[in-house]
Write a structure and sequence with these properties.
Elements: E1 5-8, E2 10-11, E3 25-26, H1 28-40, E4 44-46, H2 48-55, E5 63-70, H3 73-86, E6 91-94, H4 119-127, E7 131-134, H5 147-165, E8 171-173, H6 181-189, E9 194-196, E10 215-216, H7 223-231
Parallel strand pairs: 1-5, 1-10, 2-3, 4-5, 5-6, 6-7, 8-9
Helix pairs in contact: 1-3
This protein binds zinc ion (ZN).
Zinc ion binds at residues 69-70, 135, 139, 175.
């Protein structure tokens, strides 16, 4: 059965101004309603790690994989309690050099500054059963940097997160969805088991483990729109 892999960024009250990337900030009430819908419809929300048996077709059942990019603190504050309430797990892809920092990669483009989780918040996220994935060291465009730098961004972020956590990091998300066969190979060689892109469709049996598609959930998605993304 095709599995939806949902992609969120920030869960917070969106700024009133029309700032860039405002559409990526989902209101906490909307997120709560979306998780409640999944539960009501019999879906289990799982991290990528927890959903591997479903992706590989070894287990069946209604599953939605919940992922967040960038490791924002507002996910810890506003989404984590909701996930706990529903008994769901999720994956957050952290920018290793911005743990305790902020969205430094987006601010030059006009985005509102937003803090990232601290190391202790990330550890708590992991201790509650949620997955920590990597999203490089600095949120770089992997296709625009030299191959050696791409390799460093991919492997050193894994090392850094593993050192902070004391556990294995096996999932990766390509910043901006920038990837090709060479980048996928670098991710595989660095020791990851899965990587997600921003290709928009559900994951199917037989998809490349290093090219899993995702469905972006946006601020102005209505509940109907959300359900369509998950169910159809
Ligand atoms: Zn990102």
């Amino acid at each position: 059965m095709p599995v939806p892999i949902l992609l969120y960024h920030q869960i917070d009250i969106p700024p009133a101004k029309r700032v860039p990337f405002r559409s990526m900030i989902v209101h906490p009430d909307a997120f709560r309603r979306q998780m409640a819908w999944l539960k009501r419809l019999g879906y289990k929300g799982l991290s990528l790690r927890d959903a591997v048996p479903h992706i590989e077709g070894r287990e069946s059942g209604k599953v939605a994989i919940i992922t967040f990019d960038d490791g924002f603190r507002n996910v810890y504050e506003n989404a984590l309690p909701v996930l706990q309430e529903h008994g769901f797990t999720a994956t957050n892809f952290f920018v290793a050099n911005q743990i305790g920092g902020r969205n430094a990669w987006d601010i030059p483009l006009g985005a509102a500054p937003a803090p990232c989780m601290s190391a202790s918040q990330m550890r708590e996220w992991a201790a509650l059963g949620h997955e920590v994935g990597s999203h490089t060291l600095d949120h770089v465009h992997l296709l625009d940097v030299p191959r050696q730098e791409a390799s460093r961004q991919i492997s050193q972020s894994r090392d850094a997160l593993q050192d902070m956590l004391g556990m294995a990091v096996t999932s990766f998300a390509y910043p901006y969805g920038d990837e090709n066969a060479e980048i996928r190979a670098l991710v595989r060689d660095a020791g990851y088991a899965h990587a997600t892109t921003t290709e928009r469709r559900k994951a199917l049996l037989g998809d490349d483990d290093f090219g899993l598609p995702r469905l972006t959930i946006r601020r102005n998605d209505s509940w109907l729109h959300f359900l369509k993304k998950c169910l159809t």
